Amino acid sequence: MINNYIRKDLKDFTPYHxxxxxxxxxxxxxxxxxxxxxxxxxxxxxxxxDCNNIRRYPDTDCTDxxxxxxxxxxxxxxxxxCGVGSDQLIDSILKVFLEPGDxxxxxxxxxxxYKLSTKLNRGIPIEFSLEDDFSYNVEKIISLYRKEKPKCxxxxxxxxxxxxxxxxxxxxxxxxxxxxxxxxDEAYSEFIDESMxxxxxxxxxxxxxxxxxxxxxxxxxxxxYGIASKDMIDAINIVIPPYHLNSLSxxxxxxxxxxxxxYNNKIEEINSNxxxxxxxxxxxxxxxxxxxxxxxxxxxxxSSYTIAKKLENEKILVRGYGDAGELxxxxxxxxxxxxxNEKLIDVMKGLI
Length: 352
What we know:
Strand content: 15-25%
Structural class: alpha/beta
Number of strands: 13
CATH architecture of the largest domain: 3-Layer(aba) Sandwich
CATH superfamily of the largest domain: Type I PLP-dependent aspartate aminotransferase-like (Major domain)
Helix content: 25-40%
C-alpha cells in the first residue's frame, strides 16, 4: 500500500547501508588510523563534565566553529557554512539551486554522493569520464558544459577513489568559462597542502568543501564545512535545518582546527606510508597496476575482484569494486599505520 505513495523516481532506489563486519585491520573508508593527541581528549572530557553542554540545544549557527575555521583560513565568518559531514552540504547546495529536471555535471569515477544527491533532488546527473589515467580533461568539461548548460558542476580533487588532482591552474581555466555554481570537493586536500580557498574572493560562483573526517580523524562526528563568497553561503543557508550539527561535534572540530599542528606530523607520516605501500604493492604478482595518489588511499587493479573478499576472510577490510564498470577488478586501500601496511603486504603475498 505505502509503495503507491512513494515518488515514482525513487521506487527503484536501494537505501545505502554500511555493513558492519568483523576486522583486525580496517582500511576501507579512508579514515585516519591514528589516535588523537591526549591533550585533545583531556579538553573533550572537561567539556563533557558540564552537563549544560549536552542538555541544551546546539548553536544553530555554529558560531564558535565558524570563527575558528575563518581564522584558520583567513576568511570572514560569513564565508563559512558548516554541515553534518560534506554530504549534508552537497545535498543543501543541490536543494537550493536545482529545479526539477536541471542538469548537474560530475566526474566518473568519483564520489557517489554527487549522483545520488542529484537524483534525490530531482536533478539529472550528467557524468563525464576521466581520462585513462583518471586525469581531468579541462577542454572536455568546458565543451560538455556549453552543450548541457548545467545548473551545477562538481569537481573532486584529490578525486575519490582515484587519488588524482586537478591543478589550480587548470581549475582556473574552467572557472574562466563556467558561470554556474561549481562545487570543489577538497575532502583530501590536507594530504597535498593545496586549496582553492584563496580563490573564493575571485570567483563568486565556487564553494570549496572540506571535512574533518579524513586528515583530522573525526569521521564518527560527521563535521564538514564549506568556504565561499557571502552570496553563496547565504544561498546555502536557506535550506540548512536548525540545530543540524550537534554541540559535541562543534566543540571537538573547533578544538582540532585550533590545534592542527598536533595532526601535521601524522599527515606527513600517512604520506610517507603511502609511498612505502605504493612501492610494495607493485611487487605482488597479481597486482596489475597501482595508481599514483595524492590522498590517504591507493587504488590498485588486481587480476580478480575476489581479492577483496579474500582479504576480508583474513579480517582485513578494503573497498572492492566488483568485476564490472570503470573500476572493474579494482580495490581501494586506505593508508594505515606502518604495522597495518606491513601486515597487509604479508597477507596479500600469501593469497595467491
